[in-house]
Amino acid sequence: MINFQQNHFDLFGLQPRFHLDLAELEQAYRGIQSRVHPDKFVHASDAERRASMQSATQVNEAYRTLKGPLARARYLLALHHVDVQSESNTAMPSEFLLEQMQWRESVEEAADRPDELAALALRLGREMQEHYSQLERHLDREGDFAHAADSVRKLMFLERLGEEISDALERSEA
What we know:
Helix Hairpins, Monooxygenase
C-alpha cells in the first residue's frame, strides 16, 4: 500500500517544485490509483480493503493538492515550515488593496454586461498568471519563502475575485 509518511511529491516520484509537468503528475496518479483502488480489493480481507481505501484517499488528496497551483504552493511552503497565515495575516500593501477595490468596482459596474465581465475575467487571468510566475520564481529559483507566502495571500484574494466575476457573469447571462 501507500507509505503515509511520504510527502505528496515523493508519492508521485516528482521533484518538490512549484513548476510541475501536469501530464507527468496525471500519469503517476493513474498508475498509483490502478494499484490501490478499492475495486481491486473487493475480495480481500477487511483490513486490506480498509488499507486500500485509506491509500486511495491519500492518493486522491495528494493529487488534488499538487494539481492546483495555489494548493501546491501552500503545500510547498508547509514542507518548508512556512505558515501562509492566510487567516491571521490579512495585511496587504495599500497599492494591492486599492487595486482590489478598483477590480470590485469594475465588476459591479459591469454586472449586467456579459461582454465586459468576460473581458474582466481575461484581464484577471493575465494578472493571476503574472503572480503565479512570481510565485514560481520565489519558490523554485530563489527559495524566498516569505515573498512566496505573500504571493499566495495575494493569489487567494485574486481567486476570490475570479469567483465573484464568474458569479456575476452567470447572473448576467441568466
